[in-house]
Amino acid sequence: MSTVIFWDVLHGHATTVIAPNRRVFVVDLGQGSYGSGITFSPLVYLFKNGIRRIDHLIISHPHLDHIDDILNVKHFEVRAMTKPLYLTRSDIMDGVRDVDRPKYDYYWWLHQKYVEQIDPRDDATQAANFGGLRVQSFAPRTCARSNINNHSIVTVFEESAVKVVVPGDNEACSFAKLLKSPDFCQAVAKADVLLAPHHGRKAGTYTEFLKLVNPKLCVISDGRATETNAVSVYSRFARGAHVKRCSGGICVRRCLSTRNDGTIQMSFGWGPAGPSLEVEIA
Length: 282
Description:
The chain is of the alpha/beta class and 282 residues long. The chain is built from nine helices and 19 strands.
C-alpha cells in the first residue's frame, strides 16, 4: 500500500506520499513556525529518518506558504519536478519581500533546472515505476496570471482504484477550466480523499468540482479558523470514512484538519481484503 502524510505546518501545505516500492513524492513545501525560533520542517524530518532522495517534487504554485521549506531541498537528490509552466519570473517575484527572496530565487533556479524530458523510469503516470501507484497532474493554462492561485496544480494519486486528490489554492477560474477536460474529470471523480483547496477557505469551494469528487474524506491544511472557513461545505460533500486514533478508538469523520487533528497519516491501495483506505490521527 501507499502512504500519504498531510503534515501539520500551521497555515501552509506540505504532503508526502510514499509508494509501495518506497519511492517518495513531496507535494509543496510548507513549514510550521511556532515562535521562539521553533520551526517544524517536514524535509528535515524526512532527512533525519533516512530519506535522501525525492523521486518527484511537485510545487502546486509558488506562494510562500507552499515553498517556505524550499531551501532544505538542496539536501536531497531530486529526480523530477512538476511546477506551474505558464508563470513568468516577473509573475512569481511580484511583491516578494526581501527577506523571502532567497527562497524564490531557489524556486526559480529549480524551475529552470527541471526542464528536460525525464527518464522513463521516473514517469509517474506509469504505475509500474512506483509499485502500482499512478500519479497524474493537471493545471489550467489560460487563467489570468495576476492570480497565481488559479495556476495551481491538482495532483491525483491512485493505487488499486483508491484515489487521493491534492489541489493547491485553486479558485473558480481554475476549476472552471479544468472541468472542461474529460481526463481531469475522470481522474478526480469519486475520490476517496480530497485535500480541501485553498486551505479549506470559501474561495476554494467550487460546487461542480466537489460534486464530481464526492470524497469519502476531506482534509484541511490550516493553522487557524477564519471567517472564510468552509468546513461545513466540505463536510456536506463528503461521504464519511472510518478514522483511527493513535490513543485508541475508531470514529466516522467527514472532514479532518491539521489545526485540530495534527499531522494526518493514511495508507491507501491494495490491502489484505482488496482496495483499502486506512486513516490515523493523534
